Protein backbone atom coordinates (compact mmCIF):
# COMPACT_ATOMS: atom_id res chain seq x y z
CA UNK A 1 0.00 0.00 0.00
CA UNK A 2 1.01 3.60 -0.36
CA UNK A 3 2.79 5.15 2.59
CA UNK A 4 4.52 8.45 3.19
CA UNK A 5 6.43 9.53 6.30
CA UNK A 6 5.18 6.41 8.10
CA UNK A 7 1.51 7.41 7.83
CA UNK A 8 -0.97 5.45 5.72
CA UNK A 9 -2.21 7.89 3.09
CA UNK A 10 -3.53 7.87 -0.43
CA UNK A 11 -1.11 8.93 -3.12
CA UNK A 12 -2.78 9.67 -6.43
CA UNK A 13 -2.35 11.85 -9.50
CA UNK A 14 -5.37 13.58 -10.97
CA UNK A 15 -4.25 16.35 -13.29
CA UNK A 16 -4.32 17.73 -16.76
CA UNK A 17 -0.77 17.91 -18.06
CA UNK A 18 -0.58 20.97 -20.32
CA UNK A 19 1.54 21.16 -23.46
CA UNK A 20 1.32 22.74 -26.87
CA UNK A 21 -1.43 20.27 -27.80
CA UNK A 22 -1.67 16.98 -25.97
CA UNK A 23 -3.88 16.79 -22.88
CA UNK A 24 -3.96 13.66 -20.74
CA UNK A 25 -5.63 12.95 -17.42
CA UNK A 26 -4.01 10.34 -15.20
CA UNK A 27 -5.10 8.52 -12.07
CA UNK A 28 -3.56 5.56 -10.27
CA UNK A 29 -4.34 3.39 -7.27
CA UNK A 30 -2.47 0.61 -5.50
CA UNK A 31 -4.06 -2.83 -5.10
CA UNK A 32 -2.87 -6.13 -3.66
CA UNK A 33 -2.94 -9.77 -4.73
CA UNK A 34 -1.84 -12.67 -2.53
CA UNK A 35 -0.36 -14.35 -5.60
CA UNK A 36 1.55 -11.45 -7.11
CA UNK A 37 1.81 -8.86 -4.31
CA UNK A 38 1.14 -5.14 -4.74
CA UNK A 39 0.36 -3.64 -8.13
CA UNK A 40 -0.53 -0.18 -9.40
CA UNK A 41 -3.46 0.30 -11.75
CA UNK A 42 -3.14 3.32 -14.04
CA UNK A 43 -5.97 5.02 -15.93
CA UNK A 44 -5.04 7.31 -18.84
CA UNK A 45 -7.83 9.46 -20.28
CA UNK A 46 -6.92 11.20 -23.55
CA UNK A 47 -8.51 14.39 -24.84
CA UNK A 48 -8.82 13.50 -28.52
CA UNK A 49 -9.34 17.13 -29.53
CA UNK A 50 -5.83 17.86 -28.30
CA UNK A 51 -4.33 15.13 -30.50
CA UNK A 52 -3.67 14.62 -34.23
CA UNK A 53 -6.05 12.07 -35.81
CA UNK A 54 -4.58 10.09 -38.71
CA UNK A 55 -6.31 8.23 -41.53
CA UNK A 56 -5.33 4.55 -41.56
CA UNK A 57 -5.31 2.04 -44.40
CA UNK A 58 -8.86 0.98 -43.57
CA UNK A 59 -10.01 4.53 -44.38
CA UNK A 60 -10.87 5.33 -40.76
CA UNK A 61 -9.31 7.91 -38.45
CA UNK A 62 -7.46 7.06 -35.25
CA UNK A 63 -5.58 8.85 -32.50
CA UNK A 64 -2.49 7.07 -31.23
CA UNK A 65 -0.47 7.67 -28.09
CA UNK A 66 2.48 5.99 -26.44
CA UNK A 67 2.72 5.81 -22.64
CA UNK A 68 5.95 4.78 -20.94
CA UNK A 69 5.86 4.16 -17.19
CA UNK A 70 9.12 3.55 -15.35
CA UNK A 71 9.66 2.51 -11.73
CA UNK A 72 13.06 3.87 -10.65
CA UNK A 73 15.05 3.65 -7.46
CA UNK A 74 15.14 7.17 -5.97
CA UNK A 75 18.27 9.28 -6.38
CA UNK A 76 19.64 6.92 -9.04
CA UNK A 77 19.14 5.86 -12.64
CA UNK A 78 18.46 2.24 -11.74
CA UNK A 79 15.21 1.20 -13.43
CA UNK A 80 13.32 -1.46 -11.48
CA UNK A 81 10.54 -1.93 -14.03
CA UNK A 82 9.36 -0.23 -17.17
CA UNK A 83 6.31 -0.77 -19.36
CA UNK A 84 5.47 0.77 -22.72
CA UNK A 85 1.84 0.93 -23.79
CA UNK A 86 0.32 1.95 -27.10
CA UNK A 87 -3.07 3.61 -26.73
CA UNK A 88 -5.41 3.76 -29.72
CA UNK A 89 -8.77 5.45 -30.01
CA UNK A 90 -11.89 3.86 -31.42
CA UNK A 91 -12.18 4.31 -35.21
CA UNK A 92 -13.99 7.32 -36.61
CA UNK A 93 -15.37 8.05 -40.07
CA UNK A 94 -14.12 11.63 -39.76
CA UNK A 95 -11.21 13.30 -38.01
CA UNK A 96 -13.54 14.13 -35.09
CA UNK A 97 -12.33 11.28 -32.90
CA UNK A 98 -13.96 10.64 -29.52
CA UNK A 99 -11.99 10.86 -26.25
CA UNK A 100 -10.60 7.51 -25.17
CA UNK A 101 -9.14 5.77 -22.14
CA UNK A 102 -6.81 2.86 -21.34
CA UNK A 103 -6.06 0.86 -18.20
CA UNK A 104 -2.61 -0.55 -17.44
CA UNK A 105 -1.24 -2.44 -14.43
CA UNK A 106 2.28 -2.62 -13.04
CA UNK A 107 3.48 -5.04 -10.36
CA UNK A 108 5.62 -3.26 -7.78
CA UNK A 109 7.88 -4.58 -5.02
CA UNK A 110 8.05 -3.18 -1.52
CA UNK A 111 10.13 -0.04 -1.12
CA UNK A 112 10.51 3.63 -2.06
CA UNK A 113 10.54 4.51 -5.75
CA UNK A 114 10.17 7.25 -8.31
CA UNK A 115 7.41 6.95 -10.93
CA UNK A 116 8.25 8.43 -14.32
CA UNK A 117 5.57 9.05 -16.94
CA UNK A 118 6.39 9.86 -20.59
CA UNK A 119 3.46 10.29 -22.99
CA UNK A 120 3.61 11.19 -26.67
CA UNK A 121 1.24 11.69 -29.60
CA UNK A 122 2.44 9.09 -32.12
CA UNK A 123 0.63 10.81 -35.00
CA UNK A 124 2.56 14.00 -34.36
CA UNK A 125 6.25 13.08 -33.99
CA UNK A 126 7.32 16.73 -33.96
CA UNK A 127 5.35 17.30 -30.77
CA UNK A 128 7.40 17.15 -27.58
CA UNK A 129 6.27 14.39 -25.24
CA UNK A 130 4.71 15.03 -21.83
CA UNK A 131 6.71 14.15 -18.74
CA UNK A 132 5.76 13.79 -15.10
CA UNK A 133 7.63 12.39 -12.08
CA UNK A 134 6.54 11.64 -8.53
CA UNK A 135 7.69 9.72 -5.48
CA UNK A 136 5.84 6.62 -4.30
CA UNK A 137 6.29 4.21 -1.40
CA UNK A 138 4.95 0.63 -1.34
CA UNK A 139 4.69 -1.21 1.97
CA UNK A 140 3.62 -4.85 2.29
CA UNK A 141 0.83 -5.01 4.86
CA UNK A 142 -0.16 -8.60 4.08
CA UNK A 143 -0.04 -9.74 7.73
CA UNK A 144 -3.10 -7.68 8.71
CA UNK A 145 -6.32 -6.48 7.16
CA UNK A 146 -6.05 -3.39 4.97
CA UNK A 147 -7.69 -1.52 2.11
CA UNK A 148 -6.62 -0.79 -1.42
CA UNK A 149 -6.66 2.82 -2.52
CA UNK A 150 -10.13 4.20 -3.22
CA UNK A 151 -11.08 4.55 -6.89
CA UNK A 152 -13.59 7.06 -8.22
CA UNK A 153 -15.91 5.55 -10.83
CA UNK A 154 -18.04 7.20 -13.52
CA UNK A 155 -20.25 4.20 -14.25
CA UNK A 156 -20.30 0.44 -13.90
CA UNK A 157 -22.11 -2.50 -15.51
CA UNK A 158 -22.02 -6.27 -14.92
CA UNK A 159 -19.12 -7.91 -16.76
CA UNK A 160 -20.16 -9.96 -19.78
CA UNK A 161 -16.64 -10.71 -21.00
CA UNK A 162 -13.59 -9.97 -18.84
CA UNK A 163 -11.47 -7.01 -20.01
CA UNK A 164 -9.05 -4.41 -18.64
CA UNK A 165 -11.92 -2.51 -16.98
CA UNK A 166 -13.28 -5.60 -15.17
CA UNK A 167 -13.17 -5.94 -11.39
CA UNK A 168 -15.28 -7.99 -8.97
CA UNK A 169 -17.82 -8.92 -11.64
CA UNK A 170 -18.28 -5.38 -12.96
CA UNK A 171 -16.82 -3.28 -15.73
CA UNK A 172 -15.76 -0.05 -14.01
CA UNK A 173 -15.30 3.17 -15.99
CA UNK A 174 -12.85 5.31 -13.96
CA UNK A 175 -13.64 8.90 -13.06
CA UNK A 176 -10.17 10.30 -13.66
CA UNK A 177 -10.30 13.30 -11.34
CA UNK A 178 -10.80 14.24 -7.72
CA UNK A 179 -12.94 17.27 -8.67
CA UNK A 180 -16.74 17.11 -8.58
CA UNK A 181 -18.61 20.05 -10.19
CA UNK A 182 -22.25 21.00 -9.64
CA UNK A 183 -23.28 18.92 -12.65
CA UNK A 184 -22.36 15.68 -10.85
CA UNK A 185 -24.70 14.72 -8.01
CA UNK A 186 -23.36 11.32 -7.01
CA UNK A 187 -19.95 9.85 -6.26
CA UNK A 188 -19.28 6.19 -6.99
CA UNK A 189 -16.37 4.62 -5.14
CA UNK A 190 -14.68 1.24 -5.51
CA UNK A 191 -12.07 -0.48 -3.40
CA UNK A 192 -10.97 -3.78 -1.94
CA UNK A 193 -10.47 -5.00 1.62
CA UNK A 194 -7.78 -7.64 2.08
CA UNK A 195 -7.27 -10.43 4.62
CA UNK A 196 -10.39 -9.80 6.69
CA UNK A 197 -10.63 -13.59 7.10
CA UNK A 198 -7.22 -13.64 8.82
CA UNK A 199 -8.24 -10.98 11.34
CA UNK A 200 -11.83 -11.79 12.27
CA UNK A 201 -12.09 -15.40 11.05
CA UNK A 202 -13.41 -17.17 7.97
CA UNK A 203 -16.98 -16.60 6.81
CA UNK A 204 -17.53 -14.02 9.54
CA UNK A 205 -19.89 -11.08 9.10
CA UNK A 206 -18.55 -7.56 9.40
CA UNK A 207 -19.44 -4.09 8.12
CA UNK A 208 -18.05 -1.33 5.97
CA UNK A 209 -18.76 2.20 7.26
CA UNK A 210 -18.60 4.79 4.47
CA UNK A 211 -18.96 8.52 5.00
CA UNK A 212 -17.78 11.94 3.86
CA UNK A 213 -15.77 14.16 6.17
CA UNK A 214 -14.48 17.68 5.84
CA UNK A 215 -10.77 18.28 5.34
CA UNK A 216 -10.28 18.19 9.12
CA UNK A 217 -11.89 14.73 9.33
CA UNK A 218 -15.11 16.01 10.90
CA UNK A 219 -18.06 13.88 9.64
CA UNK A 220 -20.57 15.48 7.27
CA UNK A 221 -24.06 14.80 8.59
CA UNK A 222 -26.33 12.34 6.77
CA UNK A 223 -23.53 10.88 4.63
CA UNK A 224 -22.65 7.80 6.69
CA UNK A 225 -23.77 4.42 5.35
CA UNK A 226 -23.20 0.88 6.64
CA UNK A 227 -22.65 -1.99 4.20
CA UNK A 228 -22.76 -5.60 5.36
CA UNK A 229 -20.10 -8.03 4.16
CA UNK A 230 -18.58 -11.44 4.85
CA UNK A 231 -14.88 -11.93 5.50
CA UNK A 232 -12.59 -13.30 2.83
CA UNK A 233 -9.18 -12.98 1.26
CA UNK A 234 -10.43 -10.13 -0.95
CA UNK A 235 -13.74 -8.40 -0.26
CA UNK A 236 -14.56 -5.72 -2.85
CA UNK A 237 -17.00 -2.87 -2.31
CA UNK A 238 -18.74 -0.51 -4.68
CA UNK A 239 -21.03 2.21 -3.43
CA UNK A 240 -22.77 5.34 -4.72
CA UNK A 241 -22.87 8.41 -2.45
CA UNK A 242 -25.37 11.23 -2.93
CA UNK A 243 -23.47 14.55 -3.03
CA UNK A 244 -26.30 16.64 -4.50
CA UNK A 245 -26.50 18.86 -1.43
CA UNK A 246 -22.80 18.83 -0.60
CA UNK A 247 -21.58 22.47 -0.71
CA UNK A 248 -18.32 23.63 -2.24
CA UNK A 249 -15.22 22.76 -0.32
CA UNK A 250 -12.43 20.29 0.30
CA UNK A 251 -13.55 16.90 1.58
CA UNK A 252 -12.50 13.30 2.11
CA UNK A 253 -14.40 10.09 1.49
CA UNK A 254 -13.64 7.59 4.26
CA UNK A 255 -14.22 3.85 4.54
CA UNK A 256 -13.71 1.77 7.68
CA UNK A 257 -13.83 -1.96 8.30
CA UNK A 258 -15.80 -2.67 11.52
CA UNK A 259 -15.73 -5.96 13.36
CA UNK A 260 -18.86 -7.42 15.00
CA UNK A 261 -18.24 -5.31 18.10
CA UNK A 262 -18.08 -2.11 16.06
CA UNK A 263 -14.33 -1.68 16.45
CA UNK A 264 -12.39 -0.16 13.55
CA UNK A 265 -10.03 -2.77 12.07
CA UNK A 266 -8.63 -0.64 9.24
CA UNK A 267 -9.57 2.46 7.30
CA UNK A 268 -8.83 4.42 4.14
CA UNK A 269 -9.41 8.00 2.98
CA UNK A 270 -9.28 9.87 -0.30
CA UNK A 271 -9.56 13.65 -0.63
CA UNK A 272 -11.71 15.36 -3.24
CA UNK A 273 -12.93 18.84 -4.15
CA UNK A 274 -16.53 19.90 -4.59
CA UNK A 275 -17.68 22.97 -6.53
CA UNK A 276 -21.35 23.48 -5.81
CA UNK A 277 -23.11 26.60 -7.04
CA UNK A 278 -24.95 27.75 -3.91
CA UNK A 279 -28.17 29.64 -3.46
CA UNK A 280 -27.13 32.93 -1.79
CA UNK A 281 -30.00 32.39 0.66
CA UNK A 282 -28.41 29.15 1.85
CA UNK A 283 -26.85 30.29 5.09
CA UNK A 284 -25.75 28.84 8.38
CA UNK A 285 -27.65 30.29 11.35
CA UNK A 286 -25.57 30.07 14.53
CA UNK A 287 -27.44 28.78 17.58
CA UNK A 288 -28.68 31.91 19.34
CA UNK A 289 -29.42 30.05 22.59
CA UNK A 290 -25.76 29.09 22.95
CA UNK A 291 -24.20 30.75 25.99
CA UNK A 292 -20.70 31.84 24.97
CA UNK A 293 -20.25 34.53 27.60
CA UNK A 294 -17.50 32.58 29.36
CA UNK A 295 -15.65 31.69 26.14
CA UNK A 296 -13.06 33.60 24.14
CA UNK A 297 -15.85 34.78 21.80
CA UNK A 298 -17.70 36.31 24.75
CA UNK A 299 -14.71 38.49 25.55
CA UNK A 300 -15.30 40.48 22.36
CA UNK A 301 -17.58 43.28 23.55
CA UNK A 302 -17.29 45.62 20.56
CA UNK A 303 -19.63 44.32 17.88
CA UNK A 304 -17.94 46.11 14.96
CA UNK A 305 -14.49 44.90 15.99
CA UNK A 306 -15.80 41.35 16.34
CA UNK A 307 -17.31 41.50 12.85
CA UNK A 308 -13.95 42.52 11.41
CA UNK A 309 -12.42 39.46 13.04
CA UNK A 310 -15.20 37.30 11.62
CA UNK A 311 -14.66 38.74 8.13
CA UNK A 312 -11.06 37.53 8.10
CA UNK A 313 -12.34 33.94 8.45
CA UNK A 314 -13.59 34.05 4.85
CA UNK A 315 -10.49 32.36 3.28
CA UNK A 316 -11.06 29.17 5.29
CA UNK A 317 -14.85 29.31 5.67
CA UNK A 318 -17.12 26.88 3.89
CA UNK A 319 -19.44 28.38 1.29
CA UNK A 320 -22.46 28.29 3.63
CA UNK A 321 -20.43 30.02 6.33
CA UNK A 322 -19.28 32.71 3.88
CA UNK A 323 -22.90 33.34 2.92
CA UNK A 324 -23.74 33.70 6.60
CA UNK A 325 -20.90 36.17 7.18
CA UNK A 326 -22.06 38.31 4.26
CA UNK A 327 -25.84 38.01 4.44
CA UNK A 328 -26.68 37.34 8.11
CA UNK A 329 -23.94 38.74 10.31
CA UNK A 330 -23.60 42.07 8.50
CA UNK A 331 -26.52 43.49 10.46
CA UNK A 332 -26.65 40.99 13.34
CA UNK A 333 -26.43 41.82 17.03
CA UNK A 334 -23.31 41.07 19.05
CA UNK A 335 -24.76 37.91 20.62
CA UNK A 336 -25.30 36.36 17.18
CA UNK A 337 -21.80 37.33 16.11
CA UNK A 338 -20.30 35.90 19.29
CA UNK A 339 -22.22 32.66 18.79
CA UNK A 340 -20.99 32.36 15.19
CA UNK A 341 -17.40 33.04 16.20
CA UNK A 342 -17.42 30.36 18.86
CA UNK A 343 -19.31 27.79 16.76
CA UNK A 344 -16.98 28.34 13.78
CA UNK A 345 -13.90 27.35 15.79
CA UNK A 346 -15.60 24.73 17.97
CA UNK A 347 -16.49 22.83 14.79
CA UNK A 348 -12.83 22.81 13.75
CA UNK A 349 -11.18 22.30 17.11
CA UNK A 350 -13.61 21.03 19.75
CA UNK A 351 -10.79 20.48 22.26
CA UNK A 352 -9.49 24.05 22.16
CA UNK A 353 -11.35 26.44 19.83
CA UNK A 354 -9.62 29.49 21.30
CA UNK A 355 -6.13 28.15 20.52
CA UNK A 356 -7.22 27.36 16.95
CA UNK A 357 -8.47 30.94 16.54
CA UNK A 358 -5.29 32.41 18.04
CA UNK A 359 -3.08 30.36 15.72
CA UNK A 360 -5.13 31.39 12.70
CA UNK A 361 -5.18 35.04 13.72
CA UNK A 362 -1.38 34.99 13.99
CA UNK A 363 -1.35 34.03 10.30
CA UNK A 364 -3.88 36.80 9.55
CA UNK A 365 -1.52 39.33 11.11
CA UNK A 366 1.41 37.85 9.17
CA UNK A 367 -0.38 38.17 5.80
CA UNK A 368 -1.48 41.67 6.73
CA UNK A 369 2.15 42.62 7.31
CA UNK A 370 3.30 40.91 4.11
CA UNK A 371 0.45 41.47 1.64
CA UNK A 372 -1.85 44.19 3.01
CA UNK A 373 -2.33 47.33 0.88
CA UNK A 374 -3.91 50.73 1.39
CA UNK A 375 -7.20 49.48 -0.03
CA UNK A 376 -7.15 45.76 0.87
CA UNK A 377 -6.58 43.88 4.08
CA UNK A 378 -3.97 41.16 3.77
CA UNK A 379 -6.57 38.35 3.91
CA UNK A 380 -8.52 39.99 1.06
CA UNK A 381 -5.57 39.81 -1.36
CA UNK A 382 -5.06 36.73 -3.51
CA UNK A 383 -1.73 35.90 -1.90
CA UNK A 384 -3.12 36.38 1.60
CA UNK A 385 -6.17 34.23 0.88
CA UNK A 386 -4.04 31.40 -0.58
CA UNK A 387 -1.63 31.56 2.37
CA UNK A 388 -4.49 31.30 4.88
CA UNK A 389 -6.38 28.62 2.96
CA UNK A 390 -3.52 26.35 1.90
CA UNK A 391 -0.74 27.24 4.35
CA UNK A 392 2.73 28.67 3.97
CA UNK A 393 4.32 27.59 0.66
CA UNK A 394 7.40 25.40 0.80
CA UNK A 395 9.08 27.47 -1.90
CA UNK A 396 8.32 31.01 -3.06
CA UNK A 397 9.95 32.43 -6.17
CA UNK A 398 9.70 36.23 -6.36
CA UNK A 399 10.61 38.16 -9.52
CA UNK A 400 9.88 41.87 -9.15
CA UNK A 401 12.56 43.58 -11.22
CA UNK A 402 13.10 41.44 -14.32
CA UNK A 403 12.61 43.59 -17.45
CA UNK A 404 11.33 40.58 -19.41
CA UNK A 405 8.38 39.95 -17.10
CA UNK A 406 5.69 41.65 -15.15
CA UNK A 407 6.38 41.25 -11.43
CA UNK A 408 5.35 37.69 -10.50
CA UNK A 409 5.61 34.98 -7.87
CA UNK A 410 5.40 31.17 -8.05
CA UNK A 411 4.39 29.33 -4.88
CA UNK A 412 4.97 25.60 -4.55
CA UNK A 413 3.48 23.30 -1.92
CA UNK A 414 4.78 19.84 -1.13
CA UNK A 415 1.47 19.26 0.70
CA UNK A 416 -1.23 21.89 1.25
CA UNK A 417 -3.30 22.32 4.41
CA UNK A 418 -6.11 20.62 2.47
CA UNK A 419 -4.05 17.48 1.82
CA UNK A 420 -3.20 18.03 -1.86
CA UNK A 421 0.35 17.26 -2.96
CA UNK A 422 2.69 19.03 -5.35
CA UNK A 423 0.55 22.10 -6.06
CA UNK A 424 1.48 25.51 -7.48
CA UNK A 425 0.16 29.06 -7.69
CA UNK A 426 1.32 31.90 -9.95
CA UNK A 427 0.59 35.52 -9.03
CA UNK A 428 1.42 38.54 -11.16
CA UNK A 429 1.01 42.30 -11.19
CA UNK A 430 0.46 44.49 -14.24
CA UNK A 431 -0.50 47.62 -12.29
CA UNK A 432 2.93 47.97 -10.66
CA UNK A 433 1.31 48.33 -7.24
CA UNK A 434 2.27 46.15 -4.29
CA UNK A 435 -0.60 43.72 -4.88
CA UNK A 436 -0.38 40.64 -7.12
CA UNK A 437 -3.40 38.77 -8.45
CA UNK A 438 -3.71 35.02 -8.87
CA UNK A 439 -3.27 34.17 -12.54
CA UNK A 440 -2.93 30.37 -12.62
CA UNK A 441 -2.95 27.32 -10.36
CA UNK A 442 -3.01 23.56 -10.89
CA UNK A 443 -5.72 23.13 -8.23
CA UNK A 444 -9.00 22.43 -10.12
CA UNK A 445 -11.17 24.75 -8.00
CA UNK A 446 -8.78 27.69 -8.50
CA UNK A 447 -8.19 30.01 -11.47
CA UNK A 448 -6.59 28.11 -14.35
CA UNK A 449 -5.18 30.02 -17.29
CA UNK A 450 -2.92 28.03 -19.58
CA UNK A 451 -1.81 31.14 -21.42
CA UNK A 452 -0.03 32.27 -18.26
CA UNK A 453 3.41 32.36 -19.88
CA UNK A 454 2.34 34.98 -22.40
CA UNK A 455 0.50 36.98 -19.78
CA UNK A 456 3.54 37.16 -17.51
CA UNK A 457 5.71 38.55 -20.31
CA UNK A 458 6.37 42.24 -19.89
CA UNK A 459 4.46 44.90 -21.83
CA UNK A 460 7.43 45.12 -24.22
CA UNK A 461 6.58 41.60 -25.33
CA UNK A 462 2.86 41.26 -24.71
CA UNK A 463 -0.15 43.31 -23.71
CA UNK A 464 -2.04 41.28 -21.10
CA UNK A 465 -5.23 43.23 -21.64
CA UNK A 466 -5.50 41.67 -25.09
CA UNK A 467 -5.64 38.09 -23.77
CA UNK A 468 -8.55 36.65 -21.77
CA UNK A 469 -7.99 35.81 -18.10
CA UNK A 470 -9.49 32.33 -18.57
CA UNK A 471 -7.83 31.24 -21.78
CA UNK A 472 -7.85 27.48 -22.37
CA UNK A 473 -4.79 27.48 -24.59
CA UNK A 474 -2.71 24.64 -23.11
CA UNK A 475 0.62 26.27 -23.96
CA UNK A 476 3.12 24.60 -21.64
CA UNK A 477 5.95 22.19 -22.13
CA UNK A 478 8.00 20.84 -19.21
CA UNK A 479 10.80 19.94 -21.63
CA UNK A 480 11.33 23.41 -23.01
CA UNK A 481 14.19 25.66 -21.97
CA UNK A 482 11.77 28.46 -21.23
CA UNK A 483 12.74 30.13 -17.95
CA UNK A 484 9.15 30.53 -16.78
CA UNK A 485 8.37 26.85 -17.33
CA UNK A 486 11.55 25.84 -15.61
CA UNK A 487 10.54 27.88 -12.55
CA UNK A 488 7.02 26.44 -12.65
CA UNK A 489 7.96 22.78 -13.06
CA UNK A 490 11.19 22.88 -11.08
CA UNK A 491 10.63 25.30 -8.19
CA UNK A 492 13.60 25.95 -5.94
Distance between the termini: 30 Å
Record field, number of beta strands: 27
In CATH, the architecture of the largest domain is Sandwich
> Radius of gyration, rounded?
25 Å
Please give the domain count: 4
Give the CATH H-level superfamily of the largest domain.
Immunoglobulins
Average pLDDT score: 83
The portion of residues assigned to helices is 10-25%
The residue ranges in which pLDDT falls below 50 over 5 or more consecutive positions are 1-20, 460-480
* Global geometry: globular
Structural classification: alpha+beta
Q: Helix tally?
A: 8
Q: Kindly estimate the percentage of residues that lie in beta strands according to DSSP.
A: 35-45%
- What is the top-level CATH class of the largest domain? Mainly Beta
CATH topology of the largest domain: Immunoglobulin-like
Give the biggest sheet: 6 strands, antiparallel
List keywords for this structure.
492 residues; alpha+beta; Immunoglobulin-like; 4 domains; 5-stranded mixed sheet; 27 strands; globular; disordered N terminus
Amino acid sequence: MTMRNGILVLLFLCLAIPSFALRVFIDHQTYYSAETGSYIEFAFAFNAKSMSPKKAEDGLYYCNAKCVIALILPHSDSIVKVISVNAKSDPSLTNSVEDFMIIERLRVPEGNFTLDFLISDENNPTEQGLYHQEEISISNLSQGSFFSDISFVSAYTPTVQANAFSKAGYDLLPYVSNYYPSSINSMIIYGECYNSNLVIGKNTSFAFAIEITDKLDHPISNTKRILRAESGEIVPFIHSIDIKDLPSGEYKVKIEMLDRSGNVVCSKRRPFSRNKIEDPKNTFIPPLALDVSNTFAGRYTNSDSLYQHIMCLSPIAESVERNTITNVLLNADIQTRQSFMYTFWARRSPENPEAAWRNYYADVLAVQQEFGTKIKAGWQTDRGRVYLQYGKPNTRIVKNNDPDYWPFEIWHYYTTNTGMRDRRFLFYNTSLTSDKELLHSDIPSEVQNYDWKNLVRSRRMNDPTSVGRNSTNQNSDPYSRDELEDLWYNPH
